[in-house]
Each structure stands twice: as C-alpha cells, then as structure tokens.
Design brief:
This protein is of the alpha/beta class. 54% of the residues lie in helices and 14% in strands. It has a 6-stranded parallel β-sheet, with helices on both faces. The structure holds nicotinamide-adenine-dinucleotide. The site of nicotinamide-adenine-dinucleotide (NAD) has 27 residues, from helix 4, strand 7 and helix 7.
C-alpha cells in the first residue's frame, strides 16, 4: 500500500520505519526537514507539504504533538484534505482531544476521506520494536481493513474501542491511571522514607501484592535511583492531562484526582523539570517534605 506519514518525531520515525520494512511504499513530511533525513535514507520519498503527502498516498498517518497540530496538518491550506482523493484513509495516531478528532473526522467525511483516531501507548522503545498498544475509534469496517496490514505492523495489539474519538478517550483513561498511580507511589514511598523504612525493602515486600502495578515496577526504581531521564516527559503528560480535564468538563465527569496531579506536574514544570520523566513526581513530594526517596 502507498502510505503517507506526517510527523517524524520520537514516535513517528520508528513507526514509519517499521511500515517501510513491512514493504509499504512511503511518502513523508515533517515541518523539521532534518527529522526526515533518516527515513529518506531508508527509502521513503520526501514531500514538500501535507497536501503533497496526501496526493501521493492511499492512506495517510499523522503522528503529531496535539490537537492544533493535527488540525493544521489536515485542515489548513496545503493540508492533507487539499490533496486527498475520495476513498483515502487518514489514521491519526497522535494523542489529542477526542472532540478535536470528531471535528477533524467530520471535515474528512465531507471530502469522502475515512478517518480513524488511533493513539498509542508504549513510548519510544515499543515504537522501535513495533509492539505499541493501539486504541482505535472510527468505522469498524475501516479498522478491519487496516488492522493487519498497517496497525499490527507498528503495534502488538489494536483494539477497536468505538466511534471516532473513542480511541483518544481510551488514551486519556490510560493517562489518568498512569499519572495518579505515579503520584500515589511518590506519596507512599515518601512516607516510608520519612518513617525510616528502607524503600527498597518496601518495594520488595509489596511488589507481589495488590498494590503492585506496571507503573510501580517501572517508576519506583527510577525514584530510588534519582533517575529522571525521560521516558515520558512531564511536559507531555501535562498536555494529556489538559485534554483529560477539558474532556471531563465537556462530558460532565468529575476528575478531582487528575486535577490535583495536574497541579503537581505544573509545579514541577515551573521548577524547571518539564523535561524530566514523569517519575519526577517524587520531586514534588521531596520539595514539600524535604525527604527524597532516592539518592
Ligand atoms: P515529537 O515532538 O517528538 O514529534 C512530533 C513531530 O511532529 C516533530 O518532528 C514535529 O516537527 C512534527 N510536526 C509538528 N507539527 C507539524 C505539522 N503541522 N506538520 C508536519 N510536522 C509537524 O512527539 P512524539 O513524542 O513523537 O509524540 C507524538 C504523539 O505521540 C504525541 O501526541 C504524544 O503525546 C504521543 N505519544 C508519545 C509517546 C512518547 O513516549 N514520546 C508515547 C505515546 C504517545
């Protein structure tokens, strides 16, 4: 299949490489020309605009930071819709607001373009391995058409969650659970250290019990090592929690825990820690208590 790929950043570049490896033809575009160099060396063709990508593709994937970027790449002058033929498929794999996905899909539908929202979980290592978890919203028949040939070439799983926007709603659910879980770990392990109990022993004692989680296993060792190299940056999680809170306000869902963790992350960003891994929530508690979990 002739695939177009827009947004070759941390996630987009390895995903595009995996699609090339799977034998698809590929046209690419990124605002930063230097981000296209590697994939062009691998055999992709560079376009000069999102419009040109669409003109040359049967299916276009976008992997961009947030709603305004996808809005601009698809709907603005020289955007995807200007170059798209009726019947083209657009898969937006960025993590954006569900309401933005729905608005962009409505504009696509008017041009005969079928759009799925398909954000991912797993970060750069799983993007490189092609083992992302993909959550998809949109027409089920379109999902079935692209599942094996496209989605499962970049992911280990792809689950159809409902109508357009359901993929991004699922991603927001994921981001609430991760953020609140990290904050709970930071709070709990700060208590352990404050009470004079070795955090490593606490970790070993509880990791087989109900409190254990993938988040605890990944992030508490980072807190104990004082290692806040990202991983997933505080800045990016603030972007996602902003979409969580907007969506909650739109649909009338109360989100008191998310709001609290959002303010913790905003405090860390104001402290110059926006580029830290989100395990840096431990530093919020360190600032409050004067107690550090790690070295
Ligand atoms: P990134 O900032 O590394 O890459 C984004 C790319 O988009 C950049 O190369 C930028 O130049 C390009 N871009 C921006 N606007 C553009 C436009 N209008 N036209 C063309 N190119 C444009 O971001 P990333 O880490 O790859 O994340 C992409 C998406 O994936 C985000 O929504 C993020 O939340 C999500 N995500 C990231 C991770 C992660 O660990 N990094 C994990 C899961 C999901």
């Amino acid at each position: 299949m002739r695939i177009g790929f827009i947004g070759l950043g941390i996630m987009g570049k390895p995903m595009a490489k995996n699609l090339l490896k799977a034998g698809h033809g590929m046209t690419v575009y990124d605002l930063a020309a230097s981000n296209m160099e590697e994939i062009i060396a691998d055999g992709a063709i560079a376009a000069a605009s999102c419009r040109e990508v669409a003109e040359k593709s049967e299916l276009v994937i976008t992997m961009l930071p947030n709603s305004p970027h996808v809005h601009s790449a698809v709907l603005s002058e020289n955007g995807v819709l200007e170059g798209a033929k009726s019947g083209m498929i657009l898969i937006d794999m960025s993590s954006i607001a569900p309401a933005a996905s729905q608005e962009i899909e409505a504009a696509c539908r008017e041009k005969g373009v079928q759009m799925l929202d398909a954000p991912v979980s797993g970060g750069e290592p799983k993007a490189i391995d092609g083992t992302l978890a993909i959550m998809v919203g949109g027409d089920k028949a379109v999902f079935e058409r692209v599942k094996d040939e496209v989605l499962l070439k970049v992911g280990a799983s792809a689950v159809h969650c409902g109508a357009v926007g359901a993929g991004n709603t699922t991603k927001l659910v994921n981001q609430i659970i991760v953020a609140c879980n990290i904050a709970a770990c930071a709070e709990a392990f700060t208590l352990a250290v404050s009470a004079g109990v070795d955090p490593e022993m606490v970790f070993q004692a509880i990791r087989g019990g109900l409190a254990a989680s993938a988040v605890m296993n990944a992030k508490v060792p980072m807190m104990m090592e004082g290692n806040f190299t990202p991983g997933f940056k505080i800045d990016l999680h603030i972007k996602d929690l902003g979409n969580v809170l907007d969506t909650g306000h739109n649909v009338g869902a109360p989100l008191p825990m998310t709001a609290m963790v959002m303010e913790m992350m905003q405090t860390l960003r104001a402290d110059g820690r926006g580029s830290d891994d989100h395990a840096s929530l431990a530093n919020y508690y360190a600032k409050l208590s004067g107690i550090t979990i790690g070295v």
